[in-house]
Write a structure and sequence with these properties.
8 strands, 32% helix, Dihydrodipicolinate Reductase, domain 2, four-stranded antiparallel beta sheet
């Protein structure tokens, strides 16, 4: 989700995060994470994003049983909004007014994955066309997630980037298990 946010704001870097977490069922897994996390993320360009993610506690937006079928992105601006979810979209602008529609996520995902593959070939051909999920960007987003966890432990906003303390996941386990 953080990569989607970044892509909508020209990959501006996150500079501060204030987060909360709950549930520790997955903290002993190969991909340790709380069951639920929510945060306010402030970016260098002044944009603020409110993110909620996890396998428990995130809003369900369809009848689909998979925990991976409930993604949504909503962006509010000075002149309207756009809202995308796994099976539909809506937008409202002064020029076009309100509109909405449906789509199938599987069909959208095929196009998205093809676009990411093409972007990789473009980057191989031209160093100036950096891939949207390049390592530096991905590390900034991962650091944001670690910042959310640290913020939840300290109950304070965390300036980014930051150097996570040793034992961060162990501290989450102590709190959540």
């Amino acid at each position: 989700m953080l990569q989607l946010v970044s892509s909508y704001i020209d990959n501006s870097r996150p500079v501060k995060v204030f987060g909360q977490v709950s549930g520790g069922e997955h903290l002993d897994s190969a991909q340790p994470s709380p069951d639920h996390a929510t945060a306010s993320v402030t970016y260098a360009n002044g944009v603020r994003a409110l993110v909620t993610f996890g396998t428990k506690g995130s809003p369900e937006i369809s009848d689909h049983e998979s925990v991976f079928q409930h993604k949504r992105v909503r962006v509010f601006g000075k002149r309207g909004f756009v809202h995308w979810w796994m099976y539909g979209w809506e937008r409202n602008t002064p020029t076009d007014g309100y509109s909405r529609g449906a789509h199938e996520y599987g069909e959208q995902d095929v196009l998205g994955q093809a676009g990411l593959t093409e972007a990789m070939f473009d980057w191989l051909d031209d160093d100036e066309k950096v891939h949207p999920t390049h390592l530096e960007q991905s590390l900034a987003e991962f650091n944001t997630i670690l910042g959310i966890y640290h913020s939840a432990l300290t109950h304070e906003p965390v300036e980014l980037p930051f150097d996570p303390p040793d034992g961060l996941i162990e501290s989450l386990k102590t709190l959540l298990l």
